[in-house]
């Protein structure tokens, strides 16, 4: 069996003060796009370990909370606490806002499937139709905390530890994990859901994972990673051999866990509280409350 190297090398550290915390990160058209607490969006051109700001816009009135790419990859969408989702395109090497969708509530996270946008807000799950400009509300009483979208289905982690599946096209709803009602189990909500390859992982007071087909059969999770008492996972990313976690007890550190062995093998210091986590091309990125962006790659 091949031994997995757990060593990570830092390959990037960029940032300029003045815009507040980094609240969203993504890649679009080969450039690193970063959203900030004050509503600014910046694009960085990355060359090796150097980065240059090549675009900056500020059209959101409040924090940029999330990004998503259109299915064609031609447009970047940004969600914000100002209750809007903006659609951006590159026009003559400039970032131009071509459409604005007004949402009823502050946008915490969203994802796209065809003409539909599934939006997670503080209170509800909304399905927004771009063509009809109409909104439907789901799971009003579930206190949904996390969202992942895969193959036309939205997976929603709830405050009662249940996981809901919503088929975006036909609006069928299935509960693939029942609520936890035992007083002995700490009721930390599912703060993060990640679909990686054919597995789904959920994280709160512990991390659980199974093949998607086993979740749908409501089998016991194949893997469980227990956290120390009082520790709650706030964000999670999964890449190849690793699961990356940020937790309430050590908010300025990314924990590195081996995915197959469920073993903690290292940590990545961010320097201050981590406010955004993102992965691309086996690289793990984080943004901090001081406006710094760091990135590491496993060797």
Automatic annotation (TrEMBL):
InterPro entries: E3_ubiquitin-ligase_LIN, WD40/YVTN_repeat-like_dom_sf, WD40_repeat_dom_sf, WD40_rpt. WD repeats lie at residues 57-90. Pfam families: WD40 (PF00400). Keywords: WD repeat. SMART domains: WD40. PROSITE patterns: WD_REPEATS_2, WD_REPEATS_REGION. The keyword Nucleus does not apply. The keyword Chaperone does not apply. PANTHER family: RING-TYPE E3 UBIQUITIN TRANSFERASE. This is Uncharacterized protein.
